[in-house]
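name: query_chain
kind: protein
chains: 1
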Amino acid sequence: MGNRADDGARMAQTSAVSGARQALRWFLRAGVLGLVAWALGFAWFAADALRPTDDRTLPHADGIVVLTGGQGRIEEAVHLLAAGYADRMLITGVGPHATKSALEAHAAPYLSGDDLRDRMTLGRRAISTVGNAVETREWVQMHGLKSLIVVTAGYHMRRALFEISRTVPDTRLIPCSVRPPALQAPFRRSTLRLLMTEYDKWIGAHLGLQRHHNLLDAT
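structure:
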């Protein structure tokens, strides 16, 4: 009887060890596959982020929305407005003390001051990309717009399009990516870190990890 009990205990122990090894192998394989998928996705994301838009390929749209937060964005949006790609523009996420007069420097030599003021709206409440999207929805609904040129940095474009499309699903979104100085050296450590951070934020947006509106109270 004792031998049989010992044999049963050894078999149970062997089975447990075998099961643990199988589980470990499964987790390792899943981890490797997940890492490969992340790396392939990052390669696509980085290549897309580093590709600036050729203005000549852009169609006319009802409006332009530019998300603040980096160099060259407002300049590009004002250039498009002056060139007739749209009739009005929203700058979302501007600082609370920013004025249209202060932003005129971005318009020269494209527009006169009065023309710029008439065609530009400053969105002051957004403090995140989700907030930008909500602010854009309010502006789109106010003017009944059906198409938008979205201007932001290349590394920010995918997340901006995703968030805005959630708030205005029936509006056609046309990306216009700006390549800021931060992306001029794509293999620099700081650039790769920026791209990885934005890639993870884009994945997080799809997973619904940030759904707060991030809007300042209207005053």
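note: Residues 2-49 form the longest helix (48 residues).
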